[in-house]
Amino acid sequence: MGKQSLYNVSITIDVKGYGKSDSWGQLFGFRKIESHIDSATGGRLFKVNGQPIFIRGGNWILSDCLLRLSEERYKTDVKFHADMNLNMIRCWGGGLAERPEFYHYCDVYGLLVWQEFWITGDVDGRGIPVSNPNGPLDHDLFMLCARDTVKLLRNHPSLALWVGGNEQVPPPDLNTALKNDLKLHPFFENQSENAMSVEDMSTVFKDPSQYLDGTRIYIQGSLWDGFANGKGDFTDGPYEIQNPEDFFRDDYYNYGFNPEVGSVGMPVAATIRATMPPEGWQIPLFKKLPNGYTEEVPNPIWEYHKYIPYSKPGKVHDQIELYGIPKDLDDFCLKAQLVNYIQYRALLEGWTSHMWSKYTGVLIWKTQNPWTGLRGQFYDHLLDQTAGFYGCRCAAEPIHVQLNLATLFIEVVNTMSEELSNVAVEASVWDLEGACPYYKVFDTHSFPPKKVVSIGEMNYPKSKNPKPVYFLLLKLYDVSNYHIISRNFYWLHLSGGDYKLLEPYRKKRIPLKITSKTFIKGSSYEIEMNVQNKSKKPDPKILTCKNNFVSRHGDGDFDMASLETTFEETEEKQNAGLFQRLCRQFSRETDGLKVAEVNGSDVGVAFFLNFSVHAMKTDHKEGEDTRILPVHYSDNYFSLVPGEEMSIKISFQVPQGVTPRLTLRGWNYHNGLHTVL
């Protein structure tokens, strides 16, 4: 949502002759949030300061199931959502109204908040009757809490709407009371597609202080009035694994705004080992069915933790099995991350492909977990991100190039309020031998604001003798200076195929050069990484050699673009190990750039690389979790084609007395954690 302008008001009361009596302070912001039911899609359409906002957000359950509600945790949680480029958080009715610190960080990071009251169809009259007149048990206490909550939160500019409940409306007396208490001030009550301007309104404005809120709409339930089918029927979901291309199909979801759609959420293997006993480390049994589908049979501990299988027999073939039957927990979790990335990128790209033509928004079920559950999540309860986090981050970037997986047409998404001009798209296909059999530049284009434009087909699968498994790199770049605006990397198979050829590809040894610089302030570490695929460069006419990617960071983040001309050359040494360790621990000074080399002689894509930060220990025990969490990465689970380089920023806090080390893993670099800094 961009930089947020916030202001501080301080009020002090002095009593004459006695001095200061009381004081109060509040951060606030100026903005106008509107919404109406869009006539074209039937979905609720939100506007901020007059600009339509395509909602791509997530469902929030609770920060912590034991109510350990710390400001530090809230900051991390909310920043993670902003890092994923989401623009709305729905505080689900089965949870609670969070502490003010949560809403403060939503204000700071520019996330709209959908706030529900404490009615949920899961436990209170789901289905028929429409609502349970006997619940909650104390209606007066419920309304007292509701009014106090409104007073507590109403000054937060991030708060966008009030909703009576999840998949349910409150009982009639509570619903009526909420509607009355949350009625709009006349200035706001005429918000519709054809609303009058302030100057044209003949309504006599009333004193705003007479209203409990007066500025935000109240919707009686999450399935009413522009959400799902708008009538309260259970038309949200689904909540299981999907074929990635299905998200793009016209018949996938029939309504304009889906408040809940979810999928898988397997964390990394280290989290399983850290949160479960050894009997919980057993991966599912892959049971082959007569119809050719595979049924996953998880262990009882995973079932208790709400594991969602990566197959749906009869509809979706096992997406992990597409890469080959996993051998152990590490193999299973790595392949699950491949699926997580594809699944959630496809979900958001599919919805965005139909922006305004069919949809006005979507909220993913769910983004986080208040406990060590395994159901849909982008980061686990220990605050380690899954690859789905970065698939989401990629898909939801404000300006984005993507492949429609149903049609194989390339699309450019511009959600900004200004035209995107003088840009072009480069599409290059890379095979498992490191060759580039397909290359095309889609000439200079201009893209209108708030639009999705299809620019042409990626027709490599229709070429003569296409490879069964291949990589596709899309780059949207500024023609004047080759600056990359959006970069999107896919691994694909031909129709009806699988990814099993990627298994022998793990033996490839792709050389890397990793340049880093560390900034330390107290316990805070910020590391600038530049990672380069050093295998043989392709034909110079391929623009990949010219327009290396620099991750876009938020305000105050480091710009890695300057590193390209300031690298300090370091003598390259060969040794028997995979990495040359040039730094065994972080220096307490910013003592220049450091270089680590990955030895290798193969040419190809350095596939699915991911960094992690660990505590350096000499007495490490098997199964011990050495991760330092949370860590903020500008990108992770990334891939580099031959000759390509990418900059990544990493930031984290180090516990007292701990020395951190930065490690790298990847599809081609899986034999242990390789220390690079």
From TrEMBL:
<dbReference type="InterPro" id="IPR013783">
    <property type="entry name" value="Ig-like_fold"/>
</dbReference>
<dbReference type="InterPro" id="IPR041351">
    <property type="entry name" value="Ig_GlcNase"/>
</dbReference>
<dbReference type="GO" id="GO:0005975">
    <property type="term" value="P:carbohydrate metabolic process"/>
</dbReference>
<dbReference type="InterPro" id="IPR036156">
    <property type="entry name" value="Beta-gal/glucu_dom_sf"/>
</dbReference>
<dbReference type="InterPro" id="IPR043534">
    <property type="entry name" value="EBDG/EBM"/>
</dbReference>
<dbReference type="InterPro" id="IPR006103">
    <property type="entry name" value="Glyco_hydro_2_cat"/>
</dbReference>
<feature type="domain" description="Glycoside hydrolase family 2 catalytic">
    <location>
        <begin position="45"/>
        <end position="169"/>
    </location>
</feature>
<dbReference type="InterPro" id="IPR017853">
    <property type="entry name" value="GH"/>
</dbReference>
<protein>
    <submittedName>
        <fullName>Mannosylglycoprotein endo-beta-mannosidase isoform 5</fullName>
    </submittedName>
</protein>
<dbReference type="GO" id="GO:0004553">
    <property type="term" value="F:hydrolase activity, hydrolyzing O-glycosyl compounds"/>
</dbReference>
<feature type="domain" description="Exo-beta-D-glucosaminidase Ig-fold">
    <location>
        <begin position="593"/>
        <end position="668"/>
    </location>
</feature>
<dbReference type="InterPro" id="IPR023232">
    <property type="entry name" value="Glyco_hydro_2_AS"/>
</dbReference>
<dbReference type="Pfam" id="PF18368">
    <property type="entry name" value="Ig_GlcNase"/>
</dbReference>
<dbReference type="Pfam" id="PF02836">
    <property type="entry name" value="Glyco_hydro_2_C"/>
</dbReference>
